[in-house]
């Protein structure tokens, strides 16, 4: 169950070199097949996993990344923003003077984000009522402070990052945090960035265009216990141990090339460098409707282990992908095991889509 | 989902995006609910230029609300006319589409809305 059988895609190795059209057709077919394969792969090793671990995952995701928080806080009031891959929606209410819509591929996470947003909204409404009631007594109560935001954190949709339902060129900004590294081919990762760029306004004279903020896991994690670093394998399956008892478990427990850190044997799953060298996605067929559920151990109490696919970005790669997607890099940086980039549409080539 | 959000949503099918008929999506069998949201005049005023007013007018009519004027109010209108501000706030921020469908005017695909959440995942033949 946990063996990673790599099914090589059917490349026209013997190259039927008769005619060009045939080749092109074959290439197209291969491309389609690869893309379908990549999709199926992500369904198992990303979407299925998040559906299964949603509440548990959500409980561990409450702290905003500083670079993301400062990006959001610096948006002007009334700005319209999107959070593609919003997960449990932790960023949606962070700046209450902007209006944000979140999307995620996982219906379970979107439902969590929605109820979280509703709670926030109710809180604000009640506080506002209190303030109004008090304000009538002492007129100095101060209106319109920053705290009187509308808490628009409820707006979420279920959508795929490669088929987004957003009106094009309408948003002032888009954030996409820890999402694109789940796409299993470079083509799809660049395509995902292209979709983000399409959502934001293009610049005009006097008006800067909208910006996107993309955040991905870095290969260079020299300071982390995970042990990944420069020169290592970039396409990985990272286990998520679904601890049934604990409320707030830690990050995925895994160390490259080491034994599982728990009593149950995760070592077989850990760091399953799927494909040998660099190239395409590890095409694994663990399949089955229950996705990557590998409850190991024999009997009694075992915690199921879910394997999520990650592409770890090496230094400079994110910027390359932004350029390939037709974007222009504004700033970029590294923050605790992650690469991030702020980008906009290339001003000149912005008409085509 | 707020009416405001509908103003930023279109069909998820790639080939529909180039057609203006894919926006706005058309509510069908809509069940609405009203939320109590604090009025934030500045937010509304800042949002105004980001709205597609024509689409908002369509949506508002399709949901059975009184017809909106052809052109959006000006910022001065909103600042001076409290009722106008309240009405716009109520439509955009407090009116929620809870159940029903959103229909694309081009491909006719119906996106289900449940508990206020629309689902834009496409069946494989539409991807």
Strands ordered across the widest β-sheet of chain A? 3-2-1-4-5-10-9
Rg over alpha carbons of chain B: 15 Å
Principal-axes shape call of chain B? globular
The amount of helix of chain A comes to 25-40%
Strand content of chain B: 15-25%
Beta-strand percentage of chain A?
15-25%
Most extensive chain-chain interface:
A-B, 40 and 39 residues
- What is the H-and-E element order of chain B? HEHHHHEEE
Which sheet architecture does the biggest sheet of chain A show? 7 strands, mixed
Structural class of chain A: alpha/beta
Oligomer: heterodimer
What is the CATH architecture term of the largest domain in chain A? 3-Layer(aba) Sandwich
**CATH class category label of chain B:** Mainly Beta
Query: How many structural domains can be distinguished in the coordinates of chain A?
Result: 2
The helix/strand series of chain A, from N terminus to C terminus, equals: HHEEHEEHEEEEHEE
- CATH superfamily of the largest domain in chain A, please? Vaccinia Virus protein VP39
Protein name (chain A): S-adenosyl-L-methionine-dependent methyltransferase
Keywords (chain A): Methyltransferase, Transferase
Biased composition (Polar residues) (chain A): 261-275
GO molecular function (chain A): S-adenosylmethionine-dependent methyltransferase activity; tRNA (5-carboxymethyluridine(34)-5-O)-methyltransferase activity; tRNA binding
